[in-house]
C-alpha cells in the first residue's frame, strides 16, 4: 500500500470500520434526504409522522427509535455514533 493509499485508508477506517461512511460529521448528507440529517428519516406511523433514527455499523442496521421531533432523532443518532464508532487517538489525527 502506497503512502497516499494508507493516508486515505487511515482517514476512512478505524479498527476496520468505515467511520468515514458512517460518521455524520465526515459524511455528506444524501441529496434525496428529507431531513438533511444522516441516519434520520421521516416515516409515516399510525399515530402520525415520526422521525426514525438508525445507524449502520459493520453492515448491521440498528434502529434507535421513533421520535416526535427531528432534533430528538438527531441527538439519538449522534449519541449512537459516540458510543458505537471507534475513536481515533488525538496523537494519530
Describe this structure as you would to a colleague:
The protein is an alpha+beta fold. The protein has one domain. The protein is 31% helix and 26% strand. The chain contains three helices and three strands; from the N terminus they run H-H-E-E-E-H. The protein has helices at 3-12, 19-22, 70-84, and strands spanning 40-45, 48-57, 60-67. The protein has a three-stranded antiparallel beta sheet with strand order 1-2-3, with helices on one face.
Radius of gyration: 15 Å
pLDDT under 50 segments (min length 5)? Answer: none
Order of helices and strands: HHEEEH
Shape: elongated
**Number of discrete domains:** 1
What profile does the largest beta sheet have? 3 strands, antiparallel
Number of helices: 3
The helix content, as a percent range, equals: 25-40%
Got a strand count?
A: 3
Strand residue content: 25-35%
Return the average pLDDT rounded to an integer.
78
Strand arrangement, largest sheet? 1-2-3
Short description:
This protein has 93 residues and is of the alpha+beta class.
Q: In terms of topology, how is this protein built?
A:
Layout: H1 3-12, H2 19-22, E1 40-45, E2 48-57, E3 60-67, H3 70-84
Antiparallel strand pairs: 1-2, 2-3
What distinguishing features does this structure have?
3-stranded antiparallel beta sheet; 31% helix; 3 helices; 93 residues; single chain; alpha+beta; 3 strands
Amino acid at each position: 500500500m502506497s503512502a497516499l493509499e494508507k493516508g486515505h485508508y487511515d482517514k476512512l477506517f478505524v479498527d476496520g470500520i468505515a467511520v468515514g461512511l458512517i460518521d455524520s460529521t465526515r459524511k455528506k448528507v444524501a441529496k434525496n434526504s428529507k431531513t438533511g440529517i444522516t441516519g434520520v428519516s421521516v416515516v409515516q406511523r399510525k399515530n402520525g409522522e415520526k422521525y426514525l433514527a438508525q445507524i449502520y455499523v459493520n453492515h448491521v442496521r440498528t434502529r434507535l427509535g421513533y421520535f416526535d421531533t427531528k432534533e430528538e432523532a438527531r441527538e439519538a443518532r449522534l449519541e449512537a455514533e459516540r458510543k458505537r464508532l471507534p475513536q481515533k487517538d488525538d496523537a494519530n489525527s
